[in-house]
């Protein structure tokens, strides 16, 4: 990988880490289209490992807002979803995966724009957990389903519970990817090199949270994610 290519990915991961730490999700929606354009072989492993670092730091910071019961029901659904996502990654060709990635991003954008918000009941939490596990393992974008269910809570509560879910879920996904041969030394090497960018994004989020409310960050994530998905579709079709 060239220095320029790595720099582009590092900037995207840094911004995505800041978003993830600020609103509880966004690592995949923001960074995945960029990584797919530069080096699709790094997906989804590099971003899943990077998300693990961010979510761990956020869980420690926002631990007072944790609701372990609700997170537990979501994790029950995450298990079968993770297995299905790992199998999908094996069966789907690279171009198909890229188009699926773009479709997931645009689907999340549409739902977020419409303001649809299911109630955080056990059934909805488990269903969102399963959808998040499938999408997160296959494409590294598992945020939208869980974010929809939890979006009505206070900012700190959303961040802490989404981060706790994604922390455990990312560990599950890494295990599934390793079992199917989609997590190897090259991906791990790039992840290690990206850790400073991840940490920098987390640190930046502490300042961003003081000045930007959830609605403004939500608008930014929608715009950036839409542009990234459109570019990715254009690249695959052309």
UniProtKB/TrEMBL annotation:
What's the protein name?
Probable membrane transporter protein
- UniProt entry keywords in alphabetical sequence: Cell membrane, Membrane, Transmembrane, Transmembrane helix, Transport
Secretion signal: which residues? none
Q: Which InterPro entries match?
A: TM_pro_TauE-like, TSUP
Protein localization? Cell membrane
Its predominant location is membrane
The record describes its membrane topology as: Multi-pass membrane protein
Work out whether the entry's keyword set contains Coiled coil.
Answer: no
Family (UniProt): Belongs to the 4-toluene sulfonate uptake permease (TSUP) (TC 2.A.102) family.
State the organism of origin. Gordonia hankookensis
Query: Which Pfam families did the record assign?
Result: TauE (PF01925)
**Where are the bilayer-spanning segments?**
41-60, 72-91, 97-116, 162-181, 187-205, 217-237
